[in-house]
Every structure is written in structure tokens, then in C-alpha cells.
Amino acid sequence: MTSAMAPAEQRERIWRVVHGIPSGKVASYGQIAQLAGLPRAARLVGRVLSQLPEGSKLPWHRVVNSQGRISFPFGSEPYREQRERLLAEGVVFSGQRVARACFNWD
DNA sequence: GTGGAGGCATTAA
DNA sequence: ATTAATGCCTCCA
Q: How many domains does chain A contain in total?
């Protein structure tokens, strides 16, 4: 329990930060990690989002890598879903990349 | 209960 | 575009 509690706390913090991303905007994993108080835990964010429960209502699709690109393989199922969700929120895609204007968080 | 190795939805040069 | 480095997590012996 104790050894599994530390990640749980971080997870909660990450959820909170991700949930705070406004619609139509995106943030990078590193950014999220930093805002969550985990300066170098970008990978942790990715891991946490990958282990999200169903119907968590968390805007995980607003999280992309530092290059503004979706971290899933192009054409993949999850890739499409994320792209669709972002487009539905008004996020502008410049090809495979997200418009830099959506990175108003940095 | 402890130690060691591998893997990753990353980031930066 | 590709490669190298980093930090954290999970699993097995």
C-alpha cells in the first residue's frame, strides 16, 4: 500500500492539472508534469493518462508532446480519437502538428 | 524485504 | 530527421 500510495498522490495531482486545461487549448506532457509539481515526470504523465479509468471525463486528448504532436502512431485508433476530439474543440491542426497558438500555457 | 533490469502516450540537441 | 540522455514505474528472482 505505502509503496503504491506515492504514485496515487501524484496521479491525483496530474489529473487535476489536466482537467484544468481550457477547451480549445493543449499542453505538453512536460508542461503538465511541471504544473503538477513533477518537473521531470513527463513520462509519468503519459503513463498516468494511459492508465485512466473509463469515463473519467479527463480531457486527456488535450495533452500532446512538446512538439505539439500526438504521441500515438499516425493513423492509429487512439490517434484518430484524439485528433477528432481536439478538432471538435476548435483546436487547429497544421498537418500532423497542432497550431502553436494553442500552446498559450507556456 | 531488498536488489536489479527493462520499458515508456518524453524532451532536447 | 535521428540519436542520446533522463526520470519514474512495474515486474521478477
A: 1
User: What CATH code is carried by the domain that includes residue A77?
Assistant: 1.10.10.10
CA A46 – CA A32 distance, rounded (Å): 10
pLDDT digits (tens, 9 = 90+) for A28-44: 999 999 999 888 889 99
Residue A48: which nucleotide is closest by CA–C1'? B9
Q: Is the pLDDT of residue A24 over 80?
A: yes
Which nucleotide is closest to the Cα of A40 by its C1'?
C7
CA-atom Rg of chain A in angstroms: 14
C-alpha A28/C-alpha A49 separation (Å) is 12
Range of the domain at A97: 2-103
Query: pTM (2 decimals)?
Result: 0.91
